[in-house]
Amino acid sequence: MLQSVLVKLPLLRQAARKNVLNIDEISRLIVDVPDFPEPGVVFKDITPLLAHPVGFAATVEQLAERIAASGAEELLAIESRGFIFGAAAATRLGLPLHLVRKPGKLPRRTIGVDYDLEYGSDRVEIHDGVLTAGKSYAIVDDVIATGGTAAATAQLVRDQGGDTAGCFVVIELAFLNGHKRLNGCRVDSLITF
Ligand code: AMP
Fold first, then answer.
1. Is the pTM value of this prediction over 0.70?
2. CATH number at residue 136
């Protein structure tokens, strides 16, 4: 069993690197779930994409290529599905990965930025001391919707004197105009709805 997986591994990597699945094929692996988690929201479910080894690898390959082209020196992955793509891209590129989390999740001293939601507010945090002035950071997530989470993450970087190389996402919900909140940090998305 292990033997057959190991034999297949280089073939899968090769398939993904040649982008054997194009963006249309990748987007067909993302399922719309209407009215989740609340009425009126169409949730973009990426779990079928994760369950498709060639599709997932091709997605990571595309993200990694774009991040490499941006000149980013380190990656910031946003909780929680951003961790999946950020971690995979970081190992592919051999770049440091840092976790941006919801309040109270990181064990050491944190710095954070609050941001507004339609109803109420939220906050992103990162361990104090991991962001370095003058360094260039790629922000990675699965979806950019209103842009609030990514904008707060970009603000975290700027507050510490860092630069944002871009916000790299699998899916951009363009009709929500998230990029407008990002204050100059460009959005680089594989798929736009
Ligand atoms: P926002 O701050 O509005 O850009 O929301 C971005 C975060 O919420 C991302 O971390 C996404 O995982 C999640 N998210 C927002 N809208 C959706 C959606 N329609 N489908 C899936 N995830 C979403």
1. yes
2. 3.40.50.2020
